[in-house]
Amino acid sequence: MKLVLASNNAGKLAELQQLFAPLGVDLVRQADLNIPEAPEPHRTFVENALAKARHACKLSGLPAVADDAGLCVDAFGGLPGVDTAYYATQFGYEKGDTNNVRALLEQMKGVQGPGKRRAALVSTLVALRSADDPEPLIAVGRAVGEITQAPVGDQGFGFDPVMYIPAFGKTFAQLPPEVKNAHSHRGQSARQMVALMQERWF
Predict the structure, then answer these.
(1) Which domains, from first to last, does the chain contain?
(2) At which positions is substrate bound (predicted)?
């Protein structure tokens, strides 16, 4: 079965291909089918993921899965949230992982003390059999940690170098991919999604 991934993010594709392996599906990036990115006008992860999945289904005629993920920082009232990918642009930097990390560390300079730098990486996956599917499958994963003072580690992507996970005493960027995938927000949501698909679609 072919499943369209409603994302052009190579990091997401690599992670999800690994995590969806138990399904035996062929995960295809929407860009490889000449599908443009969908508008994401909503303020919640679930609404944006649903919009992206519906868009990919409509234009491909295939089932689709979309991930809307982001960083929710307690000190910022849960922001940047759905604006995570464009976080750096709010502060005059170009869009990109490195600039996002730089902007976040600059904004958190004055945030000190136990528990004050707490944050969660959140991944919301939505899967649809068709654009009109009345019963979308929805899975949510959360990885809670603390934002470090500086980037540490060279694995992963996004905010992995500054997301310190107390249970491991390391950032996500210091963990081997298989360990990260077992505990990350996307790992959690993908495992839930695989179980939902096995139960309802296969």
Answers:
(1) 2-200 (3.90.950.10)
(2) 7-12, 69, 157-160, 180, 185-186
